[in-house]
Design goal:
By secondary structure, the chain is α+β, with helices and mostly antiparallel strands. It has one domain: YaeB-like fold (2-Layer Sandwich). It contains four helices and five strands; from the N terminus they run βαααββββα. The protein has a five-stranded mixed sheet with strand order 1-5-4-3-2. The protein starts with a strand and ends in a 13-residue tail after the last helix.
Length: 101
């Protein structure tokens, strides 16, 4: 997969150092795979969830949430948010323009 907005992940890792290793693992796994569907991605990331056109990943044992928009046909991921869990809970992805069709 081609992942867009790596800088967001690096900036977040600088602010939350305990997220650095889990985000690096996520990055490596996604770069090495071309997931053709959410169900295929879910085989690798079993706790992932979908909201609109975004996929939510648990990072660091659920301490953080990574939200990406995915185009499975083009094999592209756009990082939209990376948040601590408490801030993620305040986000309404059903109405968020970044995750809508």
């Amino acid at each position: 997969m081609h992942i867009i907005a790596r800088k967001m992940l690096l900036d977040f890792s600088a602010k939350y150092p305990d997220a650095r290793e889990p985000l690096a693992r996520w990055w490596i796994i996604c770069k090495k795979n071309n997931f053709s569907s959410f169900s295929e991605l879910k085989k690798t990331f079993g706790t992932s969830d979908i909201a609109g056109r975004c996929v939510i990943f648990n990072i660091g044992g659920g301490k953080y949430r990574l939200i990406v928009r995915i185009n499975f046909i083009a094999c592209r991921m756009w990082v939209k948010y990376i948040l601590p869990h408490d801030k993620y809970e305040k986000l309404n992805l059903k109405e968020d323009s970044k995750c809508q069709p």
